[in-house]
Design a protein that fits this description.
about 400 residues, alpha/beta, Rossmann fold, Dihydrodipicolinate Reductase, domain 2, 18 strands
Length: about 400
């Protein structure tokens, strides 16, 4: 019996996805790929994708590999061939779709940040807890947790390789908004995006720091800034936002950059920077952890590498050393290529799909849970509150426990 025969005998899980742009394409790649790489107890079936434009969503379904197309997310949720709803829409619709899907008996995967407000995130987490009692699972999509080098870093922290943590610093730098003529997309409007660089990439920085440290942030002090306060309206945008110098323009209602210092629950210090105005930086995520016995450094632009400084070595031989995270016993690598053959950004989404399918099959809550997504939302809210109050130190409400390290 060959592998295809085995796959055909496995139970299937119908997936319906709402949204098909950048994240939708990344998630589609994962659903197409995951069962061909990993030996799984469930085989995902790409049942339907949803978008508002009938022609565009049908073209997306054909391009991305979905069997059917819908123009109303409610119709997608109601489909009998959809058991898991994957939400890849702007944050303004996350809560409504997720709660409805959970109440309809579906599993849910929701892109980060979980919601646009703490109140929405609380409603989603409450719905997820109720659904969990019925055997459903819900996961928030912080895909960087699935990079092999960062999972290895988490294991090294947990097993004491760097000792007690003293500093966690994360910088996430992009430059795609530096041109003041860039149009006013949904990501620059609070009612759709919730926040700007803070929620878009800052949420990743916050989540990955807490994940690696194994503990939540207790409080923050922050600055935020909007460098370009008006932008041209995109073609086809609704009129009436404003007109300046004869050209239709609209107000940017989110932050362009956020700078945060904070304290973890243990007392360790943390710092975060998130900006879409770092000229020359395309998608630069840099992470450094300093402990009493050593340090770990990760750079997304070299995502198959982890740098480790062992402070217990004698000074004459001590120094940072590169760990090439491509060995078969490294996290997730059992399904991929021979040692030395690196993975890329898209593989983090494949690993995310793997972990979610394993959780569904086992009837276990996946990580990061909606409760963890809610905790990140509370940090985002504390950052905005601090920035609005002259950077006053602002406490973050107690968090749910951080997830265990994947096996």
């Amino acid at each position: 019996m060959d592998a295809s025969d085995n796959e055909s005998k496995r139970p299937t899980l119908g997936v319906g996805m709402v949204g098909y742009a950048f994240m939708g394409a990344a998630h589609s790649q994962a659903w197409r790929t995951v069962a061909h790489v990993f030996d799984l107890p469930l085989t995902p079936v790409m049942s339907a994708v949803c978008g508002r434009d009938p022609d565009a969503v049908r073209a997306a379904a054909d391009r991305l590999g979905w069997a059917a197309a819908e123009t109303d997310w409610r119709a997608l949720v109601a489909r009998d061939d959809v058991q898991l709803v994957d939400i890849c829409t702007p944050g303004s619709s996350h809560a409504e779709i997720a709660v409805a899907a959970l109440e309809a008996g579906k599993h849910v995967l929701c892109e980060k940040p979980l919601a646009n407000t703490v109140e929405e995130a609380e409603a989603m987490a409450e719905a997820a807890r109720a659904a969990r009692a019925r055997g459903q699972v819900a996961m928030v999509g912080f895909n960087y947790r699935r990079l092999p080098a960062l999972v290895l870093a988490r294991r090294m922290v947990e097993t004491g390789r760097i000792g007690d943590l003293r500093h966690a610093r994360v910088a996430y730098l992009q430059d795609w908004l530096t041109d003041p003529g860039f149009p006013l997309t949904w990501r620059l409007r609070r009612e759709q995006a919730g926040s700007g660089a803070l929620g878009d990439i800052g949420s990743h920085a916050i989540d990955i720091a807490q994940y690696l440290a194994g503990e939540p942030l207790a409080g923050v002090s922050a600055l935020t800034e909007t460098f370009v306060r008006e932008r041209p309206l995109p073609e086809g945008a609704v009129a009436g936002l404003s007109a300046t110098g004869g050209a239709e323009r609209g107000e940017v209602t989110v932050d362009d950059a956020a700078l945060v210092t904070g304290r973890l629950a243990s007392g360790a210090l943390a710092s975060f920077e998130a900006t879409r105005f770092a000229t020359g930086r395309k998608n630069a995520l840099h992470i450094e952890l300093n402990g009493e016995r050593g340090s770990l450094v990760f750079d997304l632009e070299r995502l198959n590498e982890l740098h480790f400084y062992d402070g217990t070595e004698p000074p004459s031989t001590a120094g940072y050393r590169r760990i090439l995270v491509t060995e078969p016993d490294h996290p997730y690598l059992e399904g991929w290529w021979p040692p030395g053959h690196g993975l890329g950004y898209e593989h983090s989404f494949v690993h995310q799909a793997r972990d979610l399918l394993l959780a569904v099959a086992a009837g276990e809550g996946p990580e990061p849970s909606f409760d963890e997504g809610l905790q990140v939302q509370r940090v985002l809210a504390a950052v905005e509150e601090s920035a609005a109050n002259d950077s006053a130190y602002t406490r973050v409400p107690p968090a749910s426990p951080v997830s265990p390290v994947p096996a």
